[in-house]
Design a protein that fits this description.
Layout lengths: L4 H5 L1 H5 L7 H16 L1 H5 L1 H4 L6 H13 L6 H5 L6 H14 L5 H13 L7 H19 L15 E4 L2 H5 L2 H13 L4 E2 L10 H5 L2 H18 L3 E4 L3 H15 L6 E4 H11 L12 E4 L3 H4 L7 H9 L2 E3 L24 H7 L1 H10 L3 E3 L3 H13 L5 E3 L1 H8 L2
Parallel strand pairs: 1-2, 1-3, 3-4, 5-6, 5-7, 7-8
Helix pairs in contact: 3-8, 6-8, 10-12, 12-22, 14-15, 16-18, 18-22
Length: 398
């Protein structure tokens, strides 16, 4: 196919309209190697059908193509005139590169951290407990309720809540807000002590073996703690990898329910377990849709229904939902400093969307997206604050 429609849908190509950034061109590089080894004509007359040898030089070029020029957001696939799932082809390319041991250093080290320490930021269990203790003290003062607590590693709770380590290190307000909402709802919950990381960078790197191991560890801890449900904090790829890819990696269905905290927040509001006052969030709020949560994960409406109840002035970006543009920070881009300039440049498309809404706050249920949105807000002088959905719900609690 040579229609080029995919280029109009790609945030990276829009920011840097070079041929090598066309999704179709990127996919064709990977397909050319497949064709060489797995088709009759590719084996017999490779030059005639564009089949190419997978040489060391070709592998090096693939690294740039699959990691540095694509976030795997999948927007090109839903607009492809023949329905080619370009993102699936690109991840197949990542699997090839990962098998060859050529994953970019920053992304590789993140996966190693998860395997060696249990979380991507190598945060110890002691640091987790210490953070939850001082957050508990702040919550008790803020909610004027001495019974508030953030449980860690407690058995017999109904919900196991997985968090992003960034919530421990850099975004404690997200964890504090979730704890406040859980308390107000009377929820029985705990954070795992060992494997509490909702992210899975094996998914990003293309290393399915590591991705499966990270999933297995969480499920084992859930079994040991005797929980009934796993609730995932606001993380786009964390939701997709754990909710949808995990059973495939493990080769079996989960024995318990897995939901996004967004779905739980909506349930709390619908059942009256919490009440909110939108007047407490008076500024205009818009919503960024994380690709892996919405386009790949199917969760697009709970966060909207929650925000319409929790904020006074909610406006949509255009386009939105499954047609949204990637913020530019997905696909592990934030872990690979060598592609930082391209990542920020590709965020211009999202910056233009945000500016058009006139919003003062951008809500996004994903910490990778939040990091990228904070950076592009500074770069493109948007003057916006970035918050998790649960933070806005907590602020609006009656």
């Amino acid at each position: 196919m040579r229609c080029g429609l995919c280029g109009e849908t790609c945030h990276i190509y829009q920011a840097e309209p070079e041929p090598q950034n066309q999704p179709g061109v990127k996919a064709a590089k990977i397909i050319s190697h497949y064709r060489r080894y797995h088709t009759f004509l590719g084996k017999v007359v490779p030059g005639l059908v564009g089949a190419k040898e997978l040489t060391p030089e070709a592998l090096e070029e693939l690294v740039e193509t699959v990691y540095g020029r694509c976030t795997g957001c999948g927007r090109c696939g839903i607009h492809c005139s023949v329905g080619l799932d370009v993102a699936a082809v690109m991840r197949a390319g990542r699997q090839v590169v990962a098998a060859a041991g050529l994953v970019p250093d920053g992304l590789r080290r993140t996966v190693e951290n998860q395997l060696e320490t249990g979380n991507q930021m190598a945060i110890s269990a002691e640091e987790l407990v210490s953070t939850t203790e001082w957050l508990t003290e702040d919550l008790r003062l803020e909610m004027d309720d001495p019974s508030v607590r953030i449980p860690v590693g407690e058995k017999g709770k109904r919900v196991l809540y997985l968090i992003n380590p960034r919530e421990v290190k850099f975004f404690p307000l997200s964890l504090m807000a979730a704890a406040g909402v859980f308390h107000k709802a009377g929820e029985s919950w705990t954070i795992p002590r060992r494997f509490y990381d909702v992210t899975n960078y094996g998914f990003y790197s293309g290393d399915d073996g590591s991705a499966a191991e990270l999933t297995r560890r969480v499920m084992e801890e859930a079994r040991e703690l005797g929980v009934e449900e796993i609730v995932l904090s606001e993380c786009g790829h964390g939701f997709r990898s754990f909710r949808w890819e995990g059973p495939n990696w493990l080769g079996r269905s989960y024995p318990l329910r897995v939901r996004s905290v967004l779905e739980v927040l909506e349930e709390y509001l619908d059942t009256g377990r919490i009440e909110v006052d939108p007047e407490k969030n008076p500024e205009r709020v818009t919503l960024h849709d994380p690709c892996n949560l919405v386009r790949w994960g199917g969760v697009s409406e709970p966060q909207r229904r929650v925000l319409r109840r929790a904020v006074k002035d909610f406006v949509e970006m255009t386009p939105n939902r499954q047609d949204n543009f990637c913020c530019g920070g997905g696909g592990g881009m934030l872990s690979m400093s060598e592609y930082g300039d391209r990542r920020v440049a590709s965020g211009r498309v999202k910056a233009d969307q945000i500016r058009a809404t006139g919003a003062k706050i951008v809500a996004t249920p994903c910490h990778n997206c939040a990091d990228q949105l904070i950076e592009i807000s500074k770069k493109y002088q948007l003057g916006t604050d970035v918050q998790a959905v649960v933070e806005l719900v907590y602020s609006a609690l009656v």
